[in-house]
Amino acid sequence: MLNKEPKFVMLDKKNIIGVTTLASLEEMGSPEPIVWGLFYNINNNVSIKRKAAYPFTYELEIWSEKDARMTSEPSKEKFMYMVGVEVDDLNEIPHGCIGKTLPAGEHAIFTYTGKPIYILRAYMYIFKEWFPKSGITMAYNYNYAYYKKADSPHDSNSEIEIFLPIKR
């Protein structure tokens, strides 16, 4: 279940270290388990130094600079899909990982509760219904989710926050 109205919060910059792949909405469901598995394998072997206040995992989607929703086939538009954790800085990036700094700014935060395998429904509501009616636009070409509580893709008690950098 998704809260239909977000909280609006000013956030500091975030540094994320993780693993990536190219994906598209059309392919969603295929690359995610591989990327999550690769991330957990690397993290278990090198133990990335997570930021203590944010011990759980992030899922980041970075779109091309053009607005994918404006293309003729948005479901085929490629984006970078990343799974990682928040760290204090990007000074020590393990082999096989990349680092990404997300700028500070205002964010709309939606909370999704339920099975992670159904989170695409939440994104569809946000981008197809909420954004067009809100009068708000994306400040940057990414969005991310913070998996506060999710033991498996089928855990119906999962709690995931979806963050969207916005400008009014």
UniProtKB/TrEMBL annotation:
SMART domains: AraC_E_bind. This is AraC effector-binding domain-containing protein. Residues 4-167 form the AraC effector-binding domain.
